[in-house]
Amino acid sequence: MKILVIGTGYVGLVQGVCLAELGNEVACLDIDEAKIKKLRQGISPIFEPGIEELINNNLAAKRITFETSIKKAIRKAEVIFVAVGTPPDEDGRADLKYVLQAAEDIGKNLDHYAIIVNKSTVPIGTGELVKKTIKKFYKGSFDVCSNPEFLREGSAINDFMNPDRIVIGDNNGQKAAKVVAKIYEVLKSPILITNLETAEMIKYASNSYLATQISFINSVALICEQVGADVNEVSAGMKLDRRIGSRAFLSAGLGYGGSCFPKDVQALIQIANDNQVDFGILKETEALNKNQRLRFIQKIKSVIGDLKGKKIALWGVAFKPKTDDVRDAPAMTIIEALFDFNAKVVAYDPVAEENTKKIYSKVKFVKRSLEAVDDADALLIITEWDEFKQVDLEKVKVLMKKPRVFDGRNIYDPAEMRKFGFMYYSIGRK
Question: What percentage of the chain exceeds 70 in pLDDT?
C-alpha cells in the first residue's frame, strides 16, 4: 500500500519505518529540512533502540522516502497518517494547530480519494473537525479515521510490531476502517473498530488509567513508610491477582513524566470540565504525581539539611530508561529545586545529556556513573537504567564524601545497602 506519514517525531517516524518494514511504500513528510536531510542519510533525530537500523534497511530497499514537499509526497498516497504534535495549551487542552494545519495542507493538495488517519493524540471530536477542514479546500471524496498509538518510548518498535490491540475509529460505515485494518492484519493483533469519538477516548482513557495506577501505588508507599511495610512486596502481591495482573503500573517511585501521561491526564480533565463532569479521581492523580517529586526533595532536605555548596550526584535524568526524553521528567523538578537550594549538581545519563542542557545549561555532566559520585555528599537515583543495578557498590561507597543514597526508583535492596554501610532512603520502604 502507498502510505504518507505527516510528522517525523516519535510517533510518526516509528509509524513510517515500521509500515515500510511490513512491505508498504512509505513517504515521511516534515517541514524541518535539516531533520529530513539527516533521515535521508539514515540518521535518526530521536533516540529509540533499533530505529536507525530500520531506517537504513528500508532506505536500501527503497520502501521509504523522506520529503519536505506535501505536493510531491501526497501524489500517490492511498492512506495518509497525521502524526504531528499536540502540545498542551496553558489550560491543559491539546493544541490542535499542527493537526489542523496538516488537514488544511491535505485539502489544498489532495486530488484523489484517500483515507486520512489521525495518529496524533487528539480531543474527542477532532476527527470530524479534520473532515470539515479538508472539505473547505477539497471537494472530492475522502474518509477520516482515528487510529490512536499506544507506543512506549524505549520499546516503540517492539510495541508497534507486537501490539496488544489496534483501535480504528470510523464514522462512515467502517469502509475506510477496514482498509486501514488490512495494513495491520499481518501483525496478528486484535483489531477493534469503533466510531471516531470512541477511538479518540480510548487513548485518553488508557493513559489516564495507567497514570492513576502510578499515583495509587505512590500513595500506598507513603503509608508503607509509616507502618513498616515494603511497597515493592505489596506491589508484587497485588500483581499476583489476575484481576490486576503482572503488567500493572504499580512500581512506586518518583511518579510519571514524559510527553504522554502528563499531557493526556491534563487534556482528559479539561474534556471532563468542558462536559460538566467532575473527574475528581483524575485531578487527584495529577496532584499526587506533582507532590511525589516534592516529597522526595523534602526527604533529601530533612536528612542533609542546608544544601548550599553540597555536591549532589544524579544518576539518570530521562523520564524513563531507554530514551533521551526529559519532557516533564521528575529530574527536571529535582534539578530546579537543587539549584534553588544552591547545591552543586553533577549528573550522569547515558543518552539524555544534550536534551537536559537545553533546559538547564548549568548542570555539569560526566561520562561515567562513578565519576558523578566522586566526593559527593549524596547520590540521587532518578532513572532506573540497568547499568545502575550492576554498579560496584563498594567503589561507590569509597568514592562518596558522605555515603547517602536517595533511591527514587527502589533499584537496591535496603538490607544490602546497609551491609555496604550506606545511609539508604527509598520510596515506600522503611
Answer: 100
